[in-house]
Structures are given as C-alpha cells and as structure tokens.
C-alpha cells in the first residue's frame, strides 16, 4: 500500500478559524459509510499496547470499564521504542499480539498503515476533532496534543529562556536535560522536526550539543531533573510540567517563540484483532467528550474543539506549532535520530 498525504500544516491563525462545521464536512462521507460501533453481544477482552504513564492509562481503562463493563482491557505498557520493537518481532512471527496501539506520533502509524497492519475505522466521535489530527484514510486518530516545550526550575532559573535559540547560550552549559530519541517516540519525531525547521536545523542542534545536555531515557526523568534542580532546564512534553507544577514543584513551561513540535498520541486498531467492535468502542471513548475531559484532568491539551484546555494552559488555537509535512518527517526521522546520536552521545 502506498500512502501519500499530509495531515496539513497547523498554524495558530489556522486553528483560530476552525469551526465544528468544518470538522463535520471532513468526516461526514466516511462516517456515513461506517456506522457507530455497537456494544458487543458477548464479553470481549482487549489487549492494549501503550506508552502512557501507568497511572494515567489505568484511570482511562477504569472509566471505560464503567461505560462498557462487558469489555476487559489488558494493558502492556512500555516506551515507544520498546513497543515498536515488540510489534516488529510479532509481525515477523506472524501476528501482532495486541488489539490496539496508543502511543507515539502519526508517522509511526503511517508506517503501520502502509504495511496493512491497521484496521480502517471512522469513529462517529471524530466530527468534533480538529481536522488536522485525523488520518484522512481513517487508520488512526490523535487522542491529545503533546507539545514539546522548555521547562525551567523557577528556583534556579530567574531569567528563563524564551526561544530554542536561547538554549545555545553558554550560560546553559551543563544545565539542560532532554529525552533520548532511541527510547522516546516524541523525541525521535522532534529531532526530525528541528532539523527540518529553517530557523533551527543542524546548526542549532550542533550549538545545543556544545552545551552538553544530559540525555536521559524519556520525558519523565527530564521533568523530574528540572523539578529537583539537578538539570534546571529541560526539553520535555508540557503535560509533565503541569503535573509537577500542580504537585507543588518549582517548575514552569515556556513555549518557545519559534514554535513547538508536537505529537498527538494516536490510537489505532490492529487489523488482525479478533475483537473489532470492542476495539472500536475503546477508540470512541478515548476521543469522546468524556474521554477528552479525562485527558484534560491528566494535564493534556484536548483534541476536541468542545473541551477546554487544562487550567492555566494555552488553548491549542493560540499555540505556534511546528507542523512540517508528515511524509518528509517519516522519510527523514531515522537519519535525524542518527544525527542526534552522533552529536549528543
């Protein structure tokens, strides 16, 4: 299968003009062909692969179980890199061992769709979702906005950086932490986006490397290092900053002036699932208004236009977002990770 499409560049001015009618127009034809999933007549068991923090996915599964008590959900949680390695091994062995995947970025799902690993499904809940976050061919859908930002320890950093370029200042040498793109799907995606961005690119990445950032496995340890002051500046997804700030840590998020790369934590159903109707119900729940309100309660930015952002967080329409062509990022991501590793490790 050859898939050539772009999810579309998102700019703050574009998102400001989005209306629900526009979202409906983008999905009416497909949703009319795919009726809403019905509750299965018999008990069903689903296996979910995800990179979500354990406590957050547990809360989502618990809420889903209240709505669909006849469906049980078994969760296998790991970093995106470990999940993709597991899926590759299972694919080679003959069949993926999960019904659903909730992880990573759209590029990962594009690859799976191109290899016929995903089931096509147009959820009726998609009408309220920002159209840029939908796969036009309905093999996956974003479930939350995860911008990568600059985090600062407010007890240590009194004059916070306001741009990505600021992080190349020698004053930040030895003070920055960032996630490893070999482990974090978001970090791998970010590496490709930064290298593609004209105002950043390889010169910026080389200058950042001169400040010898601490590279840790994932976004969680980055946020903790910022919060405890061991690395008072971090490059990290914004939801973790809000979690720690709400818990009383001296941490704050800065949305750099050049714009922020972001992933959407898509969900997709594997084509070899034996429980397609139950899996569709889980997808519906994740992107429903109730599911998105849970996402907001977990500090994520919502992907529905009828659900407000977490308290104190910017609305998606007000963000400057770095949104390169997805096909280009897919084709360059492996080289981008190799470039990153050559500079930072």
Q: Which outline best applies?
A: globular
Give the overall average pLDDT: 88
Number of strands: 10
The number of helical elements comes to 12
Bin the helical content: 25-40%
Order of helices and strands: HHEHEHEHEEHHEHEHEEEHHH
Instruction: Characterize the biggest β-sheet.
Output: 6 strands, mixed
Structural class: alpha/beta
Please identify the oligomeric state.
single chain
The low-confidence runs, each spanning 5 or more residues with pLDDT under 50, are 4-41
Radius of gyration: 20 Å
Note the beta-strand portion.
5-15%
Distance between the termini: 36 Å
Structure report:
The structure is a single chain. The strands form 2 sheets. Strands 4, 5, 6, 7, 8 and 9 form a 6-stranded mixed β-sheet that branches. A 4-stranded mixed β-sheet has the order 2-1-3-10, covered by helices on one side. It has helices spanning 12-16, 20-33, 54-67, 80-93, 106-114, 185-196, 201-209, 219-228, 238-246, 276-287, 289-297, 326-344, and strands at 44-50, 71-77, 100-102, 146-153, 176-179, 214-216, 233-237, 251-254, 262-263, 267-269. It is an alpha/beta fold. The chain is globular. The protein is built from 12 helices and 10 strands. Helices cover 39% and strands 13% of the residues. The longest helix is centred in the last third of the chain and has 19 residues, at 326-344.
Q: Can I get a quick summary?
A:
The chain has 345 residues and is an alpha/beta fold. It has 12 helices and 10 strands.
Which short descriptors sum up this protein?
345 residues; alpha/beta; four-stranded mixed sheet; 12 helices; 13% strand
């Amino acid at each position: 299968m050859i898939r050539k499409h772009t999810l579309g560049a998102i700019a703050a001015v574009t998102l400001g003009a989005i209306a629900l009618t526009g979202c409906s127009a983008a999905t009416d034809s497909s949703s009319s062909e795919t009726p809403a999933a019905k509750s299965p007549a018999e008990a069903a068991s689903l296996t979910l692969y995800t990179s979500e923090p354990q406590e957050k996915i547990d809360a989502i599964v618990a809420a889903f179980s209240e709505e669909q008590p006849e469906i049980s959900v078994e969760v296998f949680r790991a970093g995106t890199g470990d999940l993709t390695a597991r899926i590759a091994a299972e694919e080679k062995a003959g069949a993926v061992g999960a019904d659903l995947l909730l992880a990573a970025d759209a590029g990962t799902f594009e690859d799976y769709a191109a290899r016929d690993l995903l089931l096509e499904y147009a959820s009726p809940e998609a009408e309220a979702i920002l159209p840029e976050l939908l796969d036009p061919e309905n093999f996956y859908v974003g479930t939350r906005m995860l911008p990568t930002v600059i985090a600062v320890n407010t007890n240590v950093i009194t004059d916070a950086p306001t741009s990505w370029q600021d992080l190349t200042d020698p004053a930040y040498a030895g003070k920055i932490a960032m996630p490893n793109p070999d482990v974090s799907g978001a970090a791998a995606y970010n590496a490709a986006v930064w290298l593609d961005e004209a105002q950043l690119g390889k010169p910026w990445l080389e200058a950042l490397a001169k400040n010898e950032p601490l590279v840790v496995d994932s976004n969680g340890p980055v946020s903790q290092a910022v919060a405890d002051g061991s690395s008072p500046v971090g490059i990290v997804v914004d939801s973790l900053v809000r979690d720690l700030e709400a818990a009383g840590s001296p941490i704050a998020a800065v949305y750099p002036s050049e714009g922020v790369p972001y992933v959407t934590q898509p969900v997709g159903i594997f084509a070899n699932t034996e429980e397609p109707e139950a899996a569709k119900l889980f997808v519906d729940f994740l992107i429903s208004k109730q599911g998105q309100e849970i996402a907001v309660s977990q500090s994520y930015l919502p992907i529905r236009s009828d659900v407000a952002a977490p308290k104190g967080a910017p609305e998606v329409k007000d963000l400057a977002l770095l949104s390169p062509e997805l096909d280009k990022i897919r084709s360059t991501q492996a080289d981008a990770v190799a470039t990153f590793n050559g500079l930072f490790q």
